[in-house]
User: Fold these one by one.
Assistant:
Number 1:
Amino acid sequence: MANERGVSVVDPEVKLDVKLEVKSEDKSAVNIVKPQANPEVNNEVNNDAYESIHSKSPVFFDLYERKSELKHQTHYCPGCGHGVVHKLIAEALEELGLQDKTIFVSPVGCSVFAYYYFDVGNVQVAHGRAPASATGIKRSCPDKIVISYQGDGDLAAIGTAEIVHAANRGEKITVFFVNNGIYGMTGGQMAPTTLVGQKSTTSPWGRRPSNEGFPLHMAEMLATLEAPTYIERVALSDNKNIMKARRAIRKALEIQRDGKGFSFVEILSPCPTILGLDPVEARSRIGEKMIPVFPLNVFRDHVHEPLAVKESNPPQRPVADVLGITPKAGAHDTSKRTHAHRFKDVKIKIAGFGGQGVLLLGQLLIEMGMREGLEVSWLPSYGPEMRSGSAHCHVCLSKERIGSPLVSHPDVLVAMNEYSLRKFAREVASGGVIIYNGASLPADFSAPDVQVVSIPAAEIADKLGSTKAANIVMMGALLEETECLAPGTALSVLEDKVKKLDLLEIDRKALTAGRLFIDEQAHIGAVSQPDGFA
Ligand SMILES: Cc1ncc(C[n+]2csc(CCOP(=O)(O)OP(=O)(O)O)c2C)c(N)n1
Ligand code: SF4
């Protein structure tokens, strides 16, 4: 159940075998239990003795902003195991001093909003993909503690491949697998871990192995792989087992902290709501029904053994060399040193029909950005039909590392057609720029707070010998209007990329024509000068 501070805790009505001591004045805080050294057993930790600490881990946000009037309360149902697991993870991160280094990958499932609670780095990913995303994050930020948090639908159904391969590669991440044996979020469909005979909305007569197969034992399955370092199954069935879960969670995080490889903790957890049980019954059911099928055990503990997957660093060569994109000697000065970037970052959206060179224009811009020493990202978006379907791409140019390649509010919209102009204009940030491929704007079009420039790029390109060069005309206009990148860099990129000499000649002219048009003839609906631009 959720207490007044909003974190799910064990129902106080349950006869707890713990001694509750109020250690702080904050009566509204959450109770947690810690093992105590018992002098009567040779100072070893006695797992049956507990100390209660009444405080909420600082790893949680003080306020859960998503909840309008209930800012201390999680969205979990009373008696849900997710709240308990969150608490155990938060306390372990706190004790290990890892809060500032942690990146928490939330799944799709009831725990989709974990990022509203954990005051750490957060990423929410598509259903089942958490171990793949966590792999990418850990590999690019090896010093971070990366947690993949998943339910049984997420990990053992749609995400079976991701978890198996992450474990098999021995990724140095930690996976917390909350196995409640049912799909909670979507209203009680059968999960791969649903028990034989258990009814669900998709197994209304009870799970039958002949029809739905047997429950998947993920911990045991992963323990057949060579790479994982630590695999344990624990349960939230009673306080003793919650203490074991607490230690397993902490150990899994320590393993990652120490760079010792892949750690995985499966946690048998209650879902009272879907099972139609009260919180006490749901907790007892874990011991009575789940543990006999999913025995608690340490299936792998190679903490003191050498890593199964040895580090082998590839030969160190610059990526640009490997990709063969090193600028040619004598190519145009890339202006890295001479071009002053009068912005912290610029977000650009380029949109049009497939075939108008929309995606290519984005790629050329990021190539230019790289050559000017900027951080860059390019994110394409298009339908199954590449040609003549709608396509757009997101481009970020930044002096700092880019958090997300997604551009929701572009500073600059390059609209290659009217459809894109109308579709994306309202997203443009106040004070931003729209560069529109057209002799004039549609009569009924207006974009308050935005500077709109129209340029007949397709006509200009046509006259130069190839309509296809309209995107380069637009590039010239973009560079002239915003001065975000140097025209010299554009030329050097075109010279490297365009292999056919006649096309290169047209592109050179198109670039110049775009720039000249802005200087001399552009129809500009000036509203205000965008921040940071000249
Ligand atoms: C690609 C995709 N397929 C299906 C869904 C629907 N869906 C959302 S959550 C979920 C399963 C949730 O169960 P589980 O992972 O066990 O987490 P729980 O809610 O029980 O914590 C499903 C099938 C989705 N969001 N995305
Ligand atoms: S439906 Fe089940 S898993 Fe989801 S929040 Fe409620 S109790 Fe927890």
Note: The chain is about 30% helix and 20% strand.
Number 2:
Amino acid sequence: MKLKRILKWTGATILLALILSIFAGFIAYWRSTNECDRKTSVPSNPMKAIRYCEYGSPEVVKLEDVEKPVPTDNQVLIKVRAASLNALDAYMIRDAWLNRLIFGLRKPRDTRLGRDVAGVVEAVGKNPAAAGQFKPGDEVFGICRGALAEYAVTFERALVMKPANVTFEQAASIPLAGLTALQGLRNGNIQAGQKVLINGATGGVGTFAVQIAKSLGAEVTAVCSTRNVDLVRSIGADHVIDYTKEDFTKSDQRYDVIFDNVANHSFSERRRVLTTKGICVLAGMGGAGVKEGQALGRIAGNLFIARGLSSFTNQKFAQYITKMSKPDLILLGELIQAGKLRPVIERTYKLNDAPEALRQLDAGHARGKLVITIGEESR
Ligand SMILES: NC(=O)c1ccc[n+]([C@@H]2O[C@H](COP(=O)([O-])OP(=O)(O)OC[C@H]3O[C@@H](n4cnc5c(N)ncnc54)[C@H](OP(=O)(O)O)[C@@H]3O)[C@@H](O)[C@H]2O)c1
């Protein structure tokens, strides 16, 4: 009798908790909005910026008048001269449940787009320590939120000085892709003379990875499609595998390091072509063109299988999240200044053509970087 009552109460409590959670979820969903909904009047100090008010395809991206940002005490205001696109920008727009959980249930909370920025310091916040070395007029590059705009704000720790003979377009192409290539190759612990394979060698990250691996003295094999064979050779690849004709995991060649931007082969296939103590660096899951379902499968594999395998075998699968690092960004700028690294820029677009650039990126076959230039002509 007592047991029956306990079961009855437990059932009722679970049911109540379920109803309350559904109700709370419903409220959270309808409350999650963005400033596009709150827009009532014209901005008092307007600037042009790219925004996405809804999730969807690149069609949702619009050039609009928005309020010019004001730096907080600890921020730097940049007059943007160039910005570049990353696979992340294409992923963020998509109507995917993971995006809704991270960026806003009903609509994206933050409607700004673009992380990689290069421009001129317009103003610094009131806190002189936080502004660091920067003063108005300095030419800088780094990482921010909302680079696809006439002005953007960011923190001193995310900016470095632009070398004088590096263009704004080149500088804007460096941050996320360059840091991802550099930090990933470091995880691979590359030694001169080692055999390194770069899978996905012709996108933003891959074109930097091929050149950095070469500069470290590696013998580089690049994997790309037919139309990009000449491109990867021109940036220094020693060998090229055209993935439309040949599967690199089926060859007899062994690699000390695989830098994998695509993750389109199983762990056992990749282990087959790694040396006995080889390292596979898991950089990405297929660039801007990867479909949501594929991406989720690859992320889950990286999270669960990679760690397990690395604990039980001498072959390692290394995953990492790219970190903003001033010394790394300075190093990349210096390599470009010295002519040892050449950013591959497929095309530059004006700010009002940013939706077209995003469509091109989303198609999944960008050759190097797509750069947006920003100036008076974008008005
Ligand atoms: N770990 C991190 O913290 C971090 C940070 C930044 C980026 N990432 C990831 O790094 C990856 C690469 O980014 P990205 O900016 O370079 O992307 P991207 O510019 O969109 O490049 C995609 C490239 O992948 C190539 N590709 C597509 N299918 C391929 C296949 N089956 N085999 C070989 N190559 C293939 C394409 O070359 P073709 O045109 O020749 O097919 C294209 O050049 C993304 O998944 C991104 O999310 C990770």
Note: The chain has a mean pLDDT of 91.
